[in-house]
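Page 37, continued from 36.
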């Protein structure tokens, strides 16, 4: 069997720059930054004045494994 080249380099490339150390913070109960693992996050797409739809979407994102859900609230409505 002949190997097929996918155009990937055979050895890992050197990073373009060294990564800057960051402080770890807690977002709710989820660690972010520092040596924390990458967290799964998303943002709601509902009209936030529709509270029931927004809460439903938050529940769906959580059930899908989302650890951080961001909600934009542009007005008090």
């Amino acid at each position: 069997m002949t190997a097929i080249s996918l155009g990937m380099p055979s050895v890992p490339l050197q990073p373009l720059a060294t990564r800057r150390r960051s402080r770890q913070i807690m977002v709710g109960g989820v660690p972010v930054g520092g040596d924390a693992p990458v967290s799964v996050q998303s943002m709601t797409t509902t009209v936030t004045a529709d509270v029931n739809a927004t809460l439903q979407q938050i529940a769906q994102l959580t059930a899908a494994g989302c650890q951080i859900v961001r909600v934009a609230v542009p007005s008090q409505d």
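Helices lie at 51-63. Flag for discussion at group meeting. Residues 51-63 form the longest helix (13 residues).
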